[in-house]
Amino acid sequence: MDIIQMSYLINIVDSSCNLSLAAKKIHISQSALSQFITHFEASEGIQLFNRKNGRLDGMTEAGRMVYRFATEIVAKYEEMQNVIQKEAAKQQGTIRLGLPSIILRAYFSHLLPKFYVNYPTINIEILEGGGLEIWKKFVHNELNIALLVEPTNLDSKKYEQHLIHKDEYVAFMDKDHPLASKEYLEWSDLQDYPITTFNQNFTSYSNIMQKLKDENIDIQRLHHSSSWDYMVAATAGNDIVSVLPNSVEELIDESQFRVVHFRDALPFNIWLCRPHRKRVGEAENFIYEEILKFHVPTSEEQTGGCNCMSSLNVPVG
């Protein structure tokens, strides 16, 4: 039984031995699946499935053992394929950059396309997701470079870390929300309203939950999402408050929503990170240095007319 046939077997079992359903899932004919089972059982002298009225009716004890081995082997095979792809990408000069979705959208949506145009020979593979997902990939050596939200929880002896942007969490709400008229919010102001914020795959979730715990705030209702734009939209026409990074303000319609800062602000700081290594490829080092030069202006700097964003004009080598 080869890898493809093992996949057939797994799909048949996962489809409750319904050959018609399994065939549709893997886009082959039902007769091909039936023949695979018949030929395998005949050639190996083993019965994988019980039959009832000509139909498959559950697995035999031997079939369950074969199924268990097949699932383990296919899982290992897929793991091996992923490793091969990652190692091939490294050897071919691909730089794997991981960053949380909100950072990609708010800070790097203009920078990276410009980089692709200016430096077409440098291949950057972007991996985005929740901050904790990116952190796990990074510490398991699946990424060359990562942008992480504070706290990074990295060993300074093993990782190089640079603070590239300071920001803070703020409250987004409908323009007619009862809190919208306040100049600053206390964290205790939130306890009478339903709250939305990022889900548990994001560093922001643990940061905000810890802040509420420290302030002894008992939230009325807490909703989670991985989508910042949904969380902002969810506040329209009701009393929901979304706690998100201040940078989201630039991405929304300010005529409909209100952004209020907290008097005791919770930092949303972004760190550029990579492992300490004796040898670093020229392309990776160039990308790291370019991102390190890239400074996202704070709201105060923007007000003062400061534009500290670097242009991508340094040639490789």
UniProtKB/TrEMBL annotation:
It comes from the Bacteria. InterPro entries: HTH-type_LysR_regulators, LysR_HTH_N, LysR_subst-bd, WH-like_DNA-bd_sf, WH_DNA-bd_sf. Keywords: DNA-binding, Transcription, Transcription regulation. One of its GO terms (molecular function) is DNA binding. Residues 1-59 form the HTH lysR-type domain. One of its GO terms (cellular component) is cytosol. Belongs to the LysR transcriptional regulatory family. This is LysR family transcriptional regulator. It comes from Streptococcus iners subsp. hyiners. The lineage of its organism: Bacteria, Bacillati, Bacillota, Bacilli, Lactobacillales.
